[in-house]
Amino acid sequence: MAAIQGFSTTHPSDPKPGDLIEIFRPAYQHWALYLGDGYVINVTPVDEGPPATFSSAKSVFSRKARVRMQLLKDVVGNDTYHINNKYDGTYAPLPVEEIIRRAENLIDQEVSYDLLGNNCEHFVTLLRYGEGVSDQANRAISAIGFVTAAAGAFSLLGLLRSRTRETQY
């Protein structure tokens, strides 16, 4: 795994076309796919003015996104990033020419967006592997499932406890 870094135009681990770029935002990771010549493709909220990343709170609730080609340094901003082709051991990357062709066909298109089921990581992995996957979303879904199960268990315990008290009188 490449070292985490801020933006640099001359770094020993410069991305290659087709690489997945993981950008570390304060509360989550944003994902982009490197196209070459300093540019990436990523999804941004439809309703935000200038091209931006999913960094605002309203983007979490957005149902639509716009596919944008932007300079990596602009997308990263003051955050850090690293090259993270973490699914290469599980999924075979498509040929680079196909990845780039598929990505370029989507520039400026509006696409559906769902934080848990169709997010920025799903988008770039679909381009690289032909399959949209997101560990970040899977972790969130697992956490939601755990909280829901725990709440259900506490509710059941409360119900049982109240019925036990009722039968004692």
Keywords, please?
169 residues, endopeptidase fold (from Nostoc punctiforme), six-stranded antiparallel β-sheet, 6 strands, globular
Order of helix and strand elements from N to C terminus = EEEHEHEHEHH
CATH topology of the domain at 19-48 and 61-137: endopeptidase fold (from Nostoc punctiforme)
Secondary-structure class: alpha+beta
Average of the residue pLDDT scores: 78
Task: Indicate the overall shape.
Answer: globular
Q: So, the CATH homologous superfamily of the domain at 19-48 and 61-137?
A: endopeptidase domain like (from Nostoc punctiforme)
Strand count: 6
Could you give the order of strands across the largest sheet?
A: 5-1-2-3-4-6
The fraction of residues in strands falls at: 15-25%
What fraction, in percent, of the residue positions are helical?
Answer: 25-40%
Biggest sheet descriptor:
6 strands, antiparallel
Architecture (CATH level 2) name of the domain at 19-48 and 61-137:
Alpha-Beta Complex
Rounded radius of gyration (Å): 20 Å
- Unreliable stretches (pLDDT < 50, length at least 5) are 8-12, 49-58, 140-150
What is the chains' assembly state? single chain
Q: Just give the CATH class of the domain at 19-48 and 61-137.
A: Alpha Beta
Number of helices: 5
